[in-house]
Amino acid sequence: MQERQGTPLGTLQPQPRCLRCGDALEWSEEHSVLLGCSCCSTVDETLVNVARGLASRMKKDKSHWASGRVGDIDFVGSTKTRGKFVRVRSDTDPVLIYQMLTEEWGLAPPHLVVSLVGGDELTQMKPWLRDILRKGLVKAAQSTGAWILTNGLRFGITKHLGQAVRDHSLASTSSKVRVVAIGIAPWSMIHNREALTSNFPKADEPAEYEPQDLPHGSVYSLDSHHSHFVLVEEDPNRPGATSEMRVKLLKHISLQRTGYGGAGSFEIPVLCLLVHGEPRILKRMHKGIGNSTPWLILAGSGGVADMLVTLMNRGFWDVDSVHELLLDTFPNAHHGTDISNWVKLIQKILDHGHLLTVHDPEQESSELDTVILKALVKACKSQSQEAQDFLDELKLAVAWNRVDIAKSDIFNGDVEWKACDLEEVMMDALINDKPDFVRLFVDNGVNLGEFLTYGRLQELYWSVSEKSLFHNLLLKKYEEKQLLLGAGRAPGPPGHHPPEQGDRKPRFTLYEVAKVLKDFLHDSCKGFYQKIPTEKPAKGRLFHTQKNLAESEERCEHPWRDLFLWAVLQNRQQMANYFWAMGPEAVAAALAGCKILKEMARLESEAESARSMKEAKYEQFALDVFGECYSNSEDRAYALLVRRTHCWSKSTVLNLATEADAKAFFAHDGVQALLTKIWWGAMTTDTAISKLVASFFCPPLIWTNLIKFSDEELDNRNSREQFVELDSLDTEKALLLTDDDDPLDSSPGGPAAQSCASVWWRFLLRRWRRFWSAAVTVFLGNVIMYFAFLFLFTYVLLLDFRPPPPLGPGPQEIMLYFWVFTLVLEEIRQSFFTDEEMSILKKFKLYVEDNWNKCDMVAISLFVVGVSCRMVKNTYEAGRTVLAIDFMVFTLRLIHIFAIHKQLGPKIIIVERMMKDVFFFLFFLSVWMIAYGVATQALLHPNDPRIDWVFRRALYRPYLHIFGQIPLEEIDAARMPEINCTDDSEEIIMGLRPPCPNIYANWLVILLLVIFLLVTNVLLLNLLIAMFSYTFQVVQGNTDIFWKFQRYNLIVEYHSRPALAPPFIIISHLSQLLLSLVKQPASKQEHLERELPAGLDQRLITWETVQKENYLAKLERQHWESSEERLKSTSSKVQSLLRIVGGFKDQEKRLVSMEAQVRYCGEVLSWMAECFAQSTLKCGKEAPRAPLGLSSTKDAPQSQPEREVKQEEDEARPGHSGYGANKKFPYIDE
């Protein structure tokens, strides 16, 4: 057993065999996998089977590994950390090692593997190289979820990398974000390796290991800042087996696939980072390149790295030049065979330049993760130009959220992308909230109309975070549906339904989404996702038919709207802003988003999320876009407000603004101008009130020129064909101001067929109808008749309130009853007989939500109670009392009528807000008043048993003290008169004699009175005044906005009312009843909701889109002209200048080199001239020697600062590129 414990892991594994056929499998150097299976057709299938077999064997032998060959290491000393290790042989299958890392040790599959090569000789690190490790490599590993592979030993660059990992772990605040550093070290190079193989009393006890800083030699300690170690026992006859194993492991990892939070997956990218390096690195580098592994060479680090950079900059690597540079770089290399082998390896390596990328930190300012991604893209680009071959790199860019690299290196025009190639990464970008990539993909061929199907939309809703509010809302609707399905599927108690198998995450359907939207938008989302297949109960089970599965691939009718709603419901504001900017009907969409976020902010329990929802600017977007439309064309803006939208269930912009409670939107001048037009109807808006009143009381004035009608100035050709074009101003005005269904505006014949009499009668009837159907006339009639109603009510209460039947009621009172009956009919019409298609219960709920409707219900209820009591002799006086109170309620109803007034309307809002302050004041006042009243009652009248007098003295009398009514003869003992009083409770109750006041401690009563008056009249009353002043200052700025919103509600109410006022309104009710029986719709509502012809509606949508583009262009222009952007631009230009100035040093070096070469050439020519001038060929003077710096200067790399500056200026150049997917909209997101 002891011998077995000392055996490495690789020797314990028998030859791998297939799980299906049992054939032996051999290692393939070409594919770095096990091959030889006869039942598997592909390499991947063979790999899967081998992995399953190895996993089962690993689990079977787990008890053996725990005995010392696989276990934990506790690093003791100054840094107390714990790591994991496994001891393997050099020929161990890399599949087994990878599964040990991921399955046994629980490491998540990496999204990048960086193998650190070289740097073993670097005992002293340069500051910039240390920053590359700390801020570059470790930061890149953290942000990308990468593994870092090193030799795991505490010397050279690996030691400094471990220190960088330690600094990161100390600075990191999240336990989930950590850097995985894996050491693959030869077993023979480990110092004190006996500590890992010693026997332990327990199998699971970790080994204790003390790391030490040892001098450069043959053994080194393990680095305590690495988390996992693979210790390789090399065959003495095969030196360098550890490097070969690392190459095979990298090849195997590169064939695995991983995902990054989305639906897609990509092959794990592998990259080798070369730092310095000795010539023995060349063999390992050549094998890695043979496996198509890209290499990132760190320029300036010395050794092989600088030598390769120099040769790459030269552009040629013949044998002589490579040999010369090799000797210059490594002067101690004298063995000819090794040098010739190294030269061949260098030439072979440089022949694969597409796999080599140079990073010079002193010349480049790019982050290391950017450089790594560019190196991977470069390696892929050199192998193929097909779009499919770039998908893994594109997925990696999406995973790292590096849209800049995707633009510059992937979508640079070299690869022709098809829409089908980008569908998977598009889903990843949507699910992982990458709005920049969504813009990029749409700009490069993704057509959302073809991409977004109902099936994909449902997948997007499946990806909703479980911690979000929207997920909770969907889950609630899902449970409600399951209850309904369970009730119809199986008998049992209410609410019982079988749970889902395995408690899996519920798969939400668009049915639940529609229900959630219904709660937010009400009728504005009617019909959303109604045709989409959902689970249906049938014969006690749930099923999906083939037809339903096919329908899930049906394309969405409004893709931009659907994605906008999906983003808004998850509070992804940048994504939602982009979809809003790209979608149609911008004003309506912004108001819908405003409504949804307001409702979600009210439900959100997390303060930060609720704050971000409240700060969303969709109401401002709607206001600004409509302002742009209104400034371009007033009449088209009016049509935009009243047209029935296609994307929002035929709702108008005004309806959506009402749902969203967008008071600022209603305060816009364009909306108010439209309301004014609707208020005055066919009359001109500048009609004087005096003329209106005169025409109201003297109807013949209607047919004079006293009142002008705006529609008579237009061409009255009101047929539908005139709306085909929207270019005519008259047509646009007629669009809003004429009634298409008015029979008085059309005639069966032309003008020649009409007689003078018929024209005259049509003129009289048209004016009569348009005057009395205007909202302002209806309002005036209702106000006058309401005053008449109150006058009649007053007359009945004060002068003609007769006794109960049979003596009463009188004719005037009966008329009052009929009047109230017509008011009841009107309230019933307003509540139940509306155009909206909804249940009666919901109609009643919407009716009750209005405060003035509640007031009407209270007034009518009191009137019914009062009349009922008034008819009975015993309750006659109670009926009079109730009717008197009811009169007060009817009178207070006048406040609503005055809300239309420009001066009185805002004041009513201020009074309403101050009423809330009064309630808070009454709370403080009542507390102090009760305290004072009870105390004085106990001191003055302790023996009074009369309850009514107790309340009178404890509550009523202190209240009168506030207003100065202080009966001192009842409080002050010195002023109390002498009366015949008693302390007998029976006499007091019978009222024979009053109770005697208690004069003991009367001074305390006087003191309490003084304090009470001081607090109430000075402190509390001034507090109330201060509260009123604060409320007035706060509300005064927004009073106009609130009043304009109330004005809209009042105009809509009177616009929809019949022309006749109560009690004559019953005639209108009967006429509407008859019209409903013959199914003739009223045309009055057309002023607020218009169904435009298809051509005209499309032109209006296009016009709105153009105005939205103008608005976005204006925002972009303001963004680039802001001080912050100007500072950024200036800083970028300064950096470019500094880079150019830095390039001057290279130019200076070149000039010095050229001067030396010219001087050398001149001396050589002079020497040759002297030689030829003499008679003999031998010159007595030696040939001049070349300058020492000449050989080094010709190897100087050529810099290209001007080209880099030009590229940066091209990338950073601002400007509006037009409306489209390539727009970034930073001005919206900020």
Describe the structure.
- The chain is mostly helical and 1230 residues long.
- Among the domains are: 83-377, Rossmann fold, CATH 3.40.50; 428-631 and 648-661, no CATH class; 776-833 and 851-898; 907-940 and 951-1053, no CATH class; 1121-1199, no CATH class.
- Helices cover 58% and strands 6% of the residues.
- The protein has a ten-stranded mixed sheet with strand order 8-3-4-9-7-6-5-12-13-14, with helices on both faces. Strands 1-2 form a two-stranded antiparallel sheet. Strands 10-11 form a two-stranded antiparallel sheet.
- Helix 5 (94-104) crosses helix 9 (241-254) and helix 36 runs antiparallel to helix 37 (811-832).
- The longest helix has 55 residues, at 1002-1056.
- The chain is elongated, with a radius of gyration of 45 Å.
- The N terminus is likely disordered.
In short:
The chain is mainly alpha-helical. The protein has 52 helices and 16 strands.
Key features?
single chain; ten-stranded mixed beta sheet; two-stranded antiparallel ribbon; Rossmann fold; 16 strands; 1230 residues; mainly alpha
User: Average pLDDT value?
Assistant: 79
Helix content: 55-70%
Which structural category do the helix and sheet elements fall into? mainly alpha
* CATH topology description of the domain at 83-377: Rossmann fold
Distance between the termini: 69 Å
Quantity of strands, as a count: 16
Strand content: 5-15%
**Which residues form runs of ≥5 with pLDDT under 50?**
1-22, 27-36, 38-48, 58-68, 490-503, 533-550, 715-730, 733-741, 1188-1226
Spatial strand sequence of the major β-sheet: 8-3-4-9-7-6-5-12-13-14
CATH architecture of the domain at 83-377: 3-Layer(aba) Sandwich
Give the biggest sheet: 10 strands, mixed
* Count of DSSP H/I helices: 52
Rg, alpha carbons: 45 Å
Oligomer: single chain
- For this structure, what is the CATH class of the domain at 83-377? Alpha Beta
Shape, per Cα inertia axes: elongated
